[in-house]
Structure formats: C-alpha cells, structure tokens
Amino acid sequence: MHLLKSVLVASLVAVFGTISHQTQINGLPAGIVLSLAGVILGAVECRSTNLGRITFPILMVLFVFVSAQDWTGDKLLPANELGMVWSYGAVLLAALVSLWPRIGPQR
Q1: What span, in angstroms and rounded, lies between the C-alpha atoms of 6 and 8?
Q2: Close Cβ partners of 93 (under 8 Å, ≥ 6 residues apart)
Q3: Model-level pTM?
Q4: Does residue 107 sit within a domain?
Q5: Is residue 104 part of a domain?
Q6: Which residue segment(s) compose the domain that 43 sits in?
Q7: Which residue, 81, 8, 75, is CA-closest to 46?
Q8: What is the pLDDT along the chain (107 residues), one digit of tens a residue?
Q9: Is residue 106, in this structure, part of any structural domain at all?
Q10: Is the dihedral angle over the CA atoms 32, 68, 46, 2 positive or is it negative?
C-alpha cells in the first residue's frame, strides 16, 4: 500500500511539474516555484514510511529522465534555464527531503 502511494504521488508530482514548470506570470517564473513546492510536499508526504522515503526520490529520477527523452521528436523538458532547474532541482529536493534526519521529541 505504501509503495502504491509513493508511485502515485511521485507520478502526479512529476507529470504536473513537467507540464507547468515553464509557466510564467508577468515575467515571473511561477510554474517552477509551484512545481518545486509540489516536490517538497510530495516528498514530505511519502517520507512517513521507510519504503516511501526510498522510492519517492528514485521514482522522481525515473520520471524526470523519461520525460527528458526525445521519443517522438518533441521534448517535454526543453534544454533552457527553467528546464534545467526543474530536472536537477526536482531530483535534488526529493533526495534532500528523503535524507533529512527525523527529529523527534527531546528526551
């Protein structure tokens, strides 16, 4: 059940982030900010179990890698500044959140 949750959350975050990371509102990169915030929220959500903690960053790497490929002559992740920030930033944030130590109550 936890694996299914991680797969679902990672795929939704990756798909919607890949679709919206190029969006700009009045010249401000609102899409990349919201996409990376989605990665942080998804990673925190999946972090509650050890399996989700491991699978979420791996799935983000897989989904970003697959979406960056040129399968049909059209790329979902263009090689521009926002595309690079999304591809490297999503993977880095997912890994950082999953590697962050658990902070429990002080004894």
Answers
A1: 5
A2: 36, 39, 40, 43
A3: 0.86
A4: no
A5: no
A6: 2-99
A7: 8
A8: 778 888 899 999 999 998 998 889 998 999 999 999 999 999 998 888 778 888 999 999 999 888 888 888 777 788 889 889 999 999 999 999 988 877 777 66
A9: no
A10: positive
